Fold this sequence. Notes:
There is one protein chain. By secondary structure, the chain is of the alpha+beta class. Helices cover 18% and strands 48% of the residues. The protein has one helix and six strands, in the order E-E-E-E-E-E-H. The protein has one helix spanning 77-93, and strands at residues 4-12, 18-25, 37-45, 48-56, 60-65, 68-71. It has a six-stranded antiparallel beta sheet with strand order 1-2-3-4-5-6, with helices on one face. Strand 4 and strand 5 (60-65) form a beta hairpin. It starts with a strand and ends with a helix.
Amino acid sequence: MDAVLLARAKEVRDDGSIVEIVIWELPAPLPPSQHRYKYRLYFGAAGVARVRYDNERGKGDHRHLGDREQDYLFTSVEQLLADFQSDVERWEQS
């Protein structure tokens, strides 16, 4: 099986902020992740990331909230999207 693109979307909002989502299903997990998804979820403006979720080889699942980076416990694509949306909404309200 080759990698399969599951989602790719980019929204440029009226205020200039950007939301971008890219999710791939891989033939095998990307270590140290135990799941078969590669993802990049981004919310930011003026070239500055405010909320970002991603995973990469050797680093695994994590998220960035402003300047802070923390591990992220991936359970499903649906939960990933819900958690990202929740963090974006919290950021917008702050």
